[in-house]
Amino acid sequence: MAATRKIIVGVDLGGTSLRAVVVDPNDQTLAEVKTATPAAARPDVVIRAIARTVDEALKAAGVRRGAVGAVSIGAPGSVDAKTGVVNRAPNLGWTEVPLSKKLKALLRLPVLVGNDVHVGAIGEYALGAGRGTEHMVGIFIGTGIGGAIIIRGQLYQGSRGGAGEWGHTVILADGPLCSCGHRGCAEALGSRTAMEREVRAAIKAGKKSVVLKIMKDRGRERMTSSVMARALRQGDQVMQQVLARAQYYLGLLVANAVNVVDPECVVIGGGIADRLGETFVAPIRRTAYQYFLRARDAERVKILPGSLGDNAGALGAVVLARQWLRKN
Ligand SMILES: [Zn+2]
């Protein structure tokens, strides 16, 4: 168990921001550094920025590199956790980047890489809303919908690392076109992108809404979670209706997930859940309960918003590194 007594650096690599946390063996965060991900840069430039951010965080924590057991990264897109290669990450513009190997050469420390949503779900499982459960489903709703399945405390990766893609469960045959090319996926009905598309369509059809004005006032090109929250506070009916429709489909999605996995807990993560909390999750929960196959003890399956917010990824990366160190 000696290896698990080491300090871990967890990194959340996003398309816009990069975050590193230094965590001691007692789950205490010693330091946290957040910076912008170099925009439109070559992979090597981004990887050097990750190394610098890790070093800065260690310096802020007063920790030597020698005391670090591993650096663990949650990266967006399709990631091979076994080889540490990011196969495809559209929002970084990466294909086939050996992230683990390159960062290891710079830091001279073991480097682990996982998919950001998988890693975020592990964070919520071990340290957040899913704490104390054994089987958990994570559904992260943002511009897309990502997900994870955790069975007996372990991330279930599937045979090719592709398990947990709840966002591409077809909920409405012949529904709206999804980013994956199919129609009617949960992502095309319940993501923030889907909701923005519906709001814009309603406005175009002549309905009154404050959403576009709020976006303009706040200098936002997209309907962010904070734009949504403000529109709801102002009683915007288009926003309310679009949200309610998305929540209905997300409720169906959660029910499907529960009927397949039978978890003790479903954690709804991502920006909208962070921002709106119960306002977002309660209607999803109501619909989901109606579609549970096992109606008995339905309420024993908890459906909760994530509780770690932006830290889920970096903290989850730490948890995965601990699991890895225990095995190796
Ligand atoms: Zn899809």
How would you portray this structure in words?
Helix 1 (43-61) packs across helix 2 (99-107) and helix 5 (192-204) runs antiparallel to helix 8 (237-261). The chain has 328 residues and is of the alpha/beta class. The protein has helices at 43-61, 99-107, 116-127, 186-190, 192-204, 211-217, 225-233, 237-261, 271-276, 278-290, 312-327, and strands at residues 7-13, 17-23, 29-36, 68-75, 78-80, 85-89, 94-97, 111-115, 136-141, 145-151, 154-155, 265-269, 302-305. It is built from eleven helices and 13 strands. Strand 1 (7-13) and strand 2 (17-23) form a beta hairpin. Strands 3-2-1-4-8 form a five-stranded mixed beta sheet. The model has no long low-confidence stretch (mean pLDDT 94). It starts with 6 loop residues before the first strand and ends with a helix. Residues 168, 178, 180, 182, 185, 187 line the site of zinc ion (ZN). Zinc ion binds at residues 168, 178, 180, 182, 185, 187.
